Amino acid sequence: MAVNLDSLGHVLEASLDPSKNKQAELAMLQEEKKPGFSIALLQIVAADRFSSTARLASALYFKNYIKKIWTDEEGRHKLPPDEVAAIKRELIGLMISVSSNIQYQLGDAIGVIADSDFWQRWDTLVD
Question: How many other C-beta atoms lie within 10 A of the C-beta of residue 115?
Answer without folding.
Answer: 10
